[in-house]
Amino acid sequence: MARRKYVVGNWKMNGLSDAISEAQAIFSAATGHQSVDVALCPPFTLISAMVAAAPGAAVGGQDCHSATSGAFTGSVAAPMLADIGAGVVIVGHSERREGFSESDADVQAKAEAGLAAGLSVILCCGEPREVRESGGAIDFVLAQIAGSVPASFDPHQLAIAYEPIWAIGTGLVPTVADVAAMHGAIRGALAARFGDVADDMRLLYGGSVNGENAAELLDAGDVDGALVGGASLTAAKFVPIIAAADALG
Ligand code: PEP
Predict the structure, then answer these.
(1) Residues above pLDDT 70, as percent of the chain
(2) Which residues line ligand 1 at a C-beta cut-off of 6 Å?
């Protein structure tokens, strides 16, 4: 079965209450693009309001704890996200792996927690610039995949986002050939470990995706969607990316 395109916005630590109208505009426009699944992951503080403002839309968290409850000050558990109507969670973003020292094992445990809570999980991976320059990007990312993808899952509930760290928020993007090579390698590794299940998993590209480059990146081999940071904050910038995915769907 063909994989539907999937476009996810990661708002990071951006947005106050007045940003909900922007989310409404995005989800409203997305209803006109039926061949693509769209999700927004705002800060935790906006999830409930976004769910209320856009009933039925896919809203998610940008992280979750691996435990279901306990003495983890400041953390949010996956069942808590589900409890307030979130349907999605991002785990293993490089800003978490680097800034909060999250290991592959941590990311795997968070992914398992998200799956167990019934959330659609987006598991991120990606290499730093020096690894890309030394020619080791594919080996680096496949090691992350080996260490952080759970042992079992419903392939429709787990997507992988390949986000080269040097491309996030920089305006730099890999060549389409490099994206296709990486995504092909990721799918190959998933197929070697999980068999046919890998065919149903969606592999997203992330890193400086915008309305101008989205069509080309989304059309690359084994690219099933995009994880978008800066360009997901406004309907004016995000809807063209959704439309580009829809046109390929
Ligand atoms: C991200 O943080 O997931 C991301 C891809 O950011 P940007 O689109 O701004 O590069």
Answers:
(1) 100
(2) 10, 163, 168-169, 206-209, 227-231
Position in ligand 1 atom list of the atom nearest CA 124: 3
Report CA(41)–ligand 1 centroid distance (Å).
12
CATH of 61-67+74-174+192-209, one of 3.40.50.720, 3.40.190.10, 3.30.950.10, 3.20.20.70: 3.20.20.70
Ligand 1: nearest atom to the Cα of 90: 3
Give the residue extent of every domain in the chain. Answer: 61-67+74-174+192-209
The confidence score (pLDDT) of residue 249 equals: 85
Residue nearest to atom 8 of ligand 1 (CA): 229
- State in Å: Cα 93 to ligand 1 middle: 10
Long-range contact pairs involving 97-105 (C-beta distance under 8 Å, separation at least 24):
97/124, 98/165, 103/147, 104/143, 104/144, 104/146, 104/147, 104/148, 105/147, 105/148
Residue-wise pLDDT for 122-141, tens only, equals: 999 999 999 999 999 999 99
Q: Give the dihedral of Cα atoms 56, 58, 64, 66; nearest 10 deg.
A: 80
* Contact indicator for 125, 96 with CB cutoff of 8 Å: no
Residue closest by Cα to atom 2 of ligand 1? 229
Q: What is the pLDDT of residues 23-65, one digit of tens each?
A: 999 999 999 999 999 999 999 999 999 999 999 999 999 999 9
Q: Of all atoms in ligand 1, which is nearest to the CA of residue 95? A: 2
pTM above 0.70, yes or no: yes
**The CA-based dihedral angle spanning residues 121, 79, 229, 233, taken in that order and rounded to the nearest 10 degrees:** 130
Residues designated catalytic: 93, 163
